[in-house]
Batch of 4 targets.
Target 1
Amino acid sequence: MKPVRNTVAVGSSLMLLAASMIGQLESSGRVILTSYRDIAGVWTICDGITKGVTPGMTVTPEWCARARAGEIEAHSQPLATVPYQLPGHVILAMTDLCYNVGTGACATSTAIRQLEANNREQACDAILLFKFSMVRNQRADCSKSSSGCYGIWTRRQIERSLCRNELTPAQAKLLFKDLPLGGLD
């Protein structure tokens, strides 16, 4: 039996789509070359890179592109536990979720467990469980428009729709463009 590969490989067409989507989503198309704190207070740079980022850090657009490719590949790893081939739109949606919430949270999530059990519709719906964030040092329910993080809830809805094949990657990318930077609203 041929091994299943549900991760995003550097150089693949899926990587190009993921990099384009995540880059658009994380920064509304802007690549920020100086580190800043995101909504949760995490030091961030480029279009959502957090690993190794320090205050006052400055990078080049080329550094951002290389770092993004490596991060996308790393954040698709929780999908490696799924024992059957996933369609590209599911891989993209789940990779974006993992990129945003972290591989640890993603790997142990209901969404991944549902995919492993071949319950794709429930897995896509489980994306909406990631609706909480820290806002001004308090846990906020981002599904409430007054939360200060409603952009995160909008992102989850887009990821869910992409996962369920209700949106194409191109449509998702266009919707991501209108989201506020870092999920703030």
Note: Residues 13-179 form a domain with the Lysozyme fold (CATH 1.10.530.40).
Target 2
Amino acid sequence: GFYMKLRVYPHEVLRENKQATGAGADRVSSGMRRAFGKNVGTAARVNAMQKIFTVAVEKQDFQIAKKALWHAGQKLPTPFRIVIDEGAELVQ
């Protein structure tokens, strides 16, 4: 068995102010006036060294969990680090 907790959630709304292009775009577009934009996605605001996941596993499942966290970290848009807080002496 295992225990896994996601510690951050994407509450921040990403917005994009579309700009008109082509001939006569300057007459159609309002530039940066009321430039709130449209929702294009969400993101989580994360600080350096902030924990994103917490995982607790049995000793025999440690390597599987570590590999799963590594694969999940590859999908993050930032460098990541897997840190063992408790039980590091058990898995050496």
Note: The radius of gyration is 21 Å.
Target 3
Amino acid sequence: MRWLHVYTSMISLLLVLFFGITGLTLNHPDWTFGDDVDTTTVTGSLPAGLLPAGDETVDFLSVSEYVRATYGVGGSVADHGLTGTTGTIAYKAAGYAADLRFDTATGELSLVVEQQGFVGVMNDLHKGRDTTATWRWVIDVAAVFLVVVAVSGLVVQLVYRKRRRSALTLAGAFAVVGVVLLVIGRG
């Protein structure tokens, strides 16, 4: 059990370092370290072939692909819709957001792209917000590693008779402190 604890701890310490640093920057959103949000607004028009004629509906996929190719929009489509003659498509990725508004009658468009800096991207990765399925899998694997480290560490402490009483006392004390902090934190 000790070897399992040692090797999973080595991997998990890197995870704890990442989540610890990003936990601090999440708790202090003003800590951008000079890497502020970059917002760009672009206006233009859609080609006539992409505009619906008569009773046709908007082909959001074609509009989206045109905007991606023409304006370099990234991220996954988070939402799209049509209200009257105004179409919208929202794109999201870690540290990135792009909002497209276009008029289905005239083809005029407005694109607002918000690119966060390195800290913003890391914070979104910490939360798993607007990330890929691969990154969500990485977060799950990280959680499993941390659970294995915790359980194997407790087992190692309980196996050694000399340390058992002090280990249980310390674990119990920190469990009580944790519960108290949870109660206080709920406000």
Note: The chain has two domains: 2-33+120-185, 38-115.
Target 4
Amino acid sequence: MARPRTARNRSPVSKQESYKFKFSDVDWTHKISDCPAYYPTLQEFDDPFIYLQKIAPEASQFGICKIISPVKASVSAADVLKKEIKGFEFGTYRQPLRLPKWNANDTGVFFSGERKHTYDTFESEAIKMLKRQSPRLGDLPPSYVEKKFWLEMTHGRKGTVEYGVNIEGSAFSSDPNDQLGKCKWHLKTLRGLPQSIFRFLEHIIPGITDPMLYIGMLFSMFAWHVEDHYLHSINYHHSGAPKTWYGVPGHHALQFEKVARNQVYSRDILSAAGEDGAFEVIAEKTTIFPPKILLDNGVSVYKAVQKPGEFVITFPRVYHAGFSNGFNCGEAVNFAIRDWFPFGEEAGKRYARLHKMVILPYQELLFKEVSEHEGTDIPSSVKATVLHQIRSLNNALFCLNNLKMPFDYLQNSQGSFVCDLCKRDCYLAFTECKSCQRYTCLFHEFKSRHCSCGYNRVVLLRKDIQEVEVVAKKFEEEEIMSRHLNIISCIGEGLARNS
């Protein structure tokens, strides 16, 4: 979780001050259109990824969508967390109910709560919070609660709420009679399904491959953010009060970042140029600002009011935020299918520019997927991604060969490595210094074959790299990329030799 920034130059005026509004001004909430909601039949609901691919062409244009499950849980989340999981406790974050000025002296930060909670103790705190605000809020429609939330935030009072976030575990029941717990939409089983890209991973990543729980109270908020590596996400609402979501379609992601940079953040807290600077601050997941700012600047925003028994899907590179309407329990996890690969490539480029550590071995996942499925069912956008990756590697390998850098083979059993310079994941080819054991990706300007420690670098090629290139050439021969030049191969020239 983010920490407060150190002070640099003081910004005398907050850009958000012009957006402080009076009670009547919250009518802008009615201008946000609802995202689509889908009601699959039991037959359609049988396979999550087949159904998601069916609705994606339409739903992805909105950034988020709801799916109302035709299968209901027979064991409540409360019973799972109190009876099936022994000793269930969780920590919380305290969230201020105000909008920060977003300058060097006032940035968004959530503080760790003072105590651990059980499900029951947190519910008691949530009831107290509701009574402090208004006992009637629990009986009022989400549209009213939404207005009340933004009034609280913009008035800048000193109140706080608690939110249990990133709690490892699942509230889907293990009871064999629970139909929801047995179905493929159980979030803990998604990673192993045949169409899941995560099936190639040999380890779990909490929150990405394995679900986490989110237990909230009135006005508990999740800040504006995009998923790691621009992944999809799926969130199931187990129980309690509704949750209000806002989503910005992926094709408006850059516009979102421009608005955040120009209308929300002071320049003295941006460490990188352009939209990358805003992306870095947003990535701390403490940025809350009214969607009105986006609407005023021509950025599309859609809304979902999620109730128990409903899934919310966010598509790749979709910025989203929201808040709870009262005590509730949700569960979320990321997922990736083939359509994600072009987005993952763009995320990787940005991570490398910012020297941001990768979480997923993108290149390894890409080439394992296409090597396993060489058929024509692979989307053309994924084939284009493979071709781009192979061309980039070949261009880099030619340059390194001209430096007379020795080439050697790497055992296929070894996984991905991380570039010491830009933190990019490396799988098919990279350099290694045998002395200091530093790994470097091929996308840096090498002026000599010498490492900074003085020893020679060696280019390591995975033994099956030529098989991957054969797949790429097959894609090219299908003429799906007619405007591209032929692949000029350095890989196929047999340059690997003992160093």
Note: The CA atoms of residues 371 and 468 lie 7 Å apart.
